[in-house]
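So, could you explain this one?
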Amino acid sequence: MSFFSGILLGIVVGVLLIVALARAASVRAKCRSDLAMTIAAFARMTAQDSRKVIPKEFYPSWVVFTQQQKLHWLNHQLQKIWPYVDAAASELIRSNVEPILEQFRPAILSSLTFSKLTLGTVSPNFTGIDVLEDEADTGGITLELEMQWDGNPNIVLDIKTKLGVSLPVQVKDIAFTGLFRLMFKPLVDEFPCFGAVCYSLRKKKNLDFKLRIIGGDISSIPGVSVAIEETIRDAIEGSIMWPVRQIVPIIAGDYSDLEAKPVGTLELKLVQAKELTNKDIIGKSDPYAVLFIRPLKERMKTSKTINNQLNPIWNEHFDFIVEDVSTQHLTIRVFDDEGVQASELIGCAQFALKDLEPGKVKDVWLKLVKDLDIQRDNKNRGQVHLELLYYPFGTDKNLYTNPFDPDYTLTSVEKALQTAPYGSEDSDSGKPSSPQKRDVIVRGVLSVTVIGAEELPSVDFMGKADPYVVLVMKKSETKVKTRVVHDTLNPVWNQTFDFLVEDALHDLLILEVWDHDTFGKDKLGRFLMTLTRVILEGEIQDSFPLEATKSGRIFVHLKWAAQPIFRDT
């Protein structure tokens, strides 16, 4: 009996053991599955997800290493190696920067070289670092480093003027803040896993320095200080300012595709300026303008000089290559021509190209300032009038709409106004066209109806005026005038004049309102307009404010009939 009892007990115990082991295996498998799912979920978590799930007090010490601590560590290491960087980099900077300075050397100087160059004892500080993970180009790694440097370098420039005068000029008290962009690309399967390093100054937030002639006063030589300062600033902007980038090959290869490429053209009309500051003691300034997107000599455009005039009319056309419409800007500097002496800056202005809509004309007045980086005063230095038109390469211009009527597509006249982009294909041959441009002459008849004016300034003793309008075509110097309307500040003329215009793209219409008087005449105001709008729209009726007067508007109706003429240049 005991034997059978033992067998039965053994069977029961064995079954229980088997059940227990099976259940343990099932529980262990479930735990492993849950652990795998948890690990997979953690693998998919981003840094932002981790911050939401885990409180800061539970971060491990290696995670709580903040960006400021990282920057502190980086700056500490840079400070330790700075004496060696100074010794190693000074000669390298000299050999690389001197050719750049020579490239941007102004006409007043015959040579510009370094006689001394050390970086001093104060190292730069990195104040910010960012990895651009949302860049469209994923073929590399892009970092942005914000750097601040209040340095004490010993930089002496050996300068020789056209007059044969040698000047040792010291650059001191440098204060610089900027955002540098580093691009490691392309990524390759060979150590160090990227082919080249590209660096560029993405944004120049501040650049200030002082110039001093060793043993003398730099202000005693007119124009030299301004010329040197402009050279240094232009050299920085033209050589490393984004979209320009310097490429350092790490692995041998062709990296020309990393260079900045043209993406479009900017067509510009320099119309006029008004209320310019007078820089001459006797007479008035002789203004001319210098315009550029990049301050390279071959890309800078210079207008003609208008003598003895504070309200010059240039009416000149220029075009510029654009490499990054989102970050580049147009710069204009207006100078007073001093003859054999260095020209004196009247004022400067900038316009961001990102504010332009492709294929649409933008009419702007830019206020001139003394310095684009540091607003040192609020003095009125005048304004400049521009017409701007941006066209990107590789875009069908037929898709563009009229600048002044969104429902109106480009006409054949508008297409004639445009030039083929560099490197485009000829529609007949299928081969790339040469950079030769076609000079477009738009000839036609401009009909101008002077309707009336309102709120003219009073110049007579009785508080009235006897106004009439003089119409002038600037290029052809054709001049006509309306009849005189007596004793009114709100005259109505309703007179029409027809002008045969030989080159409408380069002509201007000037409307001058005068007060007729027996013993003379007084100017009540004027309005100057290009023919761009009437060429594109065909017919317009509008009112325009009068310039050089405290009040007044003039109402006109214009109609244009054109016949474009092409002439290869």
Observations:
- Residues 196 and 249 are 4 Å apart (CA to CA).
